[in-house]
Design goal:
The protein is of the alpha+beta class. The chain contains two helices and four strands; from the N terminus they run αββββα. The chain is globular and about 35 Å long.
C-alpha cells in the first residue's frame, strides 16, 4: 500500500488485467496459487495503491504477504 503505479510496474510488470472505474483503477496479477488485486487512486500527481486484496485459487485462506511474495518471485524469474 502507498506504492505508486510506476513502482508497481517496476516490481511486477504490467498487470494481467486492468479495469478503470473512475477515479480508481483495479490491477490484477495472478499465479497458480493466488490472485492479487491492487486498487489504485489518484494521489498528488500519480496513482497510488490505496487497498489490496488477495484470493486463493482454490478458495483457501492465503495471507496477503504470502500472495504478494509469490507473485513478486514469479515476476523475477
Amino acid at each position: 500500500i502507498s506504492l505508486t503505479a510506476s513502482e508497481i510496474l517496476s516490481l511486477l510488470g504490467a498487470p494481467q488485467f486492468k479495469r478503470v472505474d473512475a477515479p480508481a483503477q483495479i490491477w490484477r496479477y495472478h499465479n497458480n496459487e493466488c490472485i492479487l488485486y491492487l486498487f489504485l487512486y489518484p494521489s498528488s500527481n500519480s496513482l497510488t495503491v490505496a487497498h489490496l486484496e488477495t484470493l486463493s485459487r482454490n478458495h483457501k485462506h492465503i495471507p496477503q504477504k504470502k500472495c504478494f511474495s509469490q507473485i513478486l518471485l514469479a515476476t523475477e524469474k
